[in-house]
């Protein structure tokens, strides 16, 4: 029996990764798309990216800052990168699904920042959107190393607006309310989706 798959998503700086860790802490398996990409950038994807974007790898790994300078704000280059990376991520996702099914988990989290952007909403059983007010989002993102207004705006331009994500969500976690409130929201969701032993009504 396949576990219930909950899609966890949110725009840049909304607190999705922190929320995903809360599910992990509760014992729920999480497929982390970003971590998968990071691993690919240190392994299988390196020669493919170097061929497509010469000079963007160093010492056998992808230099993310150099790669970003080649693709951020450049639609054709971004599509070329996605054509390399997305099939590899999809393969790892399928392996994750098979593994958690074999291990007998009741629920699992698909941590997918581009759930809507890649039209994958129908691949999960319910959607959780992590959100925060725009000013909180901007403050969080602009404190990141190597980030600036131009890069932030370019990333936002490629993401489905937060207001639309919230409208399409089954559940919303407001990360601006603090860690304790987020943990309580996660606990409530686990209470909703964790199967209970029920009597046979036949």
From TrEMBL:
The family this protein is said to belong to: Belongs to the CoaE family.
Subcellular location: Cytoplasm
Keyword set includes Nucleotide-binding: yes
Pathway: Cofactor biosynthesis; coenzyme A biosynthesis; CoA from (R)-pantothenate: step 5/5
Catalytic activity: 3'-dephospho-CoA + ATP = ADP + CoA + H(+)
Chain's role: Catalyzes the phosphorylation of the 3'-hydroxyl group of dephosphocoenzyme A to form coenzyme A.
Lineage: Bacteria, Pseudomonadati, Pseudomonadota, Alphaproteobacteria, Hyphomicrobiales
Top-level enzyme category: transferase
Protein name: Dephospho-CoA kinase
GO molecular function: dephospho-CoA kinase activity
SUPFAM superfamilies attached to this UniProt entry: P-loop containing nucleoside triphosphate hydrolases (SSF52540)
UniProt-annotated binding residues for ATP: 13-18
Domain of life: Bacteria
């Amino acid at each position: 029996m396949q576990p219930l798959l909950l899609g966890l998503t949110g725009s840049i700086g909304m607190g999705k990764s922190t929320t995903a860790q809360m599910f992990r802490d509760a014992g729920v398996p999480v497929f982390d798309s970003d971590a998968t990409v990071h691993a690919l950038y240190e392994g299988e994807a390196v020669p493919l990216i170097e061929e497509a974007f010469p000079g963007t790898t160093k010492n056998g790994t992808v230099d993310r800052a150099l790669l970003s300078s080649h693709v951020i704000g450049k639609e054709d280059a971004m599509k070329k990168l996605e054509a390399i990376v997305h099939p590899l991520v999809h393969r790892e996702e399928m392996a994750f699904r098979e593994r958690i099914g074999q291990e007998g988990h009741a629920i699992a989290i698909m941590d997918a920042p581009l759930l809507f952007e890649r039209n994958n909403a129908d691949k999960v059983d319910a959607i959780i959107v992590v959100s925060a007010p725009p000013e909180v989002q901007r403050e969080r993102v602009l404190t990141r190393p190597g980030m600036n207004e131009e890069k932030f705006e370019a990333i936002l331009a490629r993401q489905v607006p937060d207001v639309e994500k919230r409208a399409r969500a089954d559940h919303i976690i407001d990360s601006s309310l603090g860690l304790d409130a987020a943990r309580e929201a996660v606990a409530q969701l686990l209470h909703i989706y964790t199967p209970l032993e029920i009597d046979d009504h036949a």
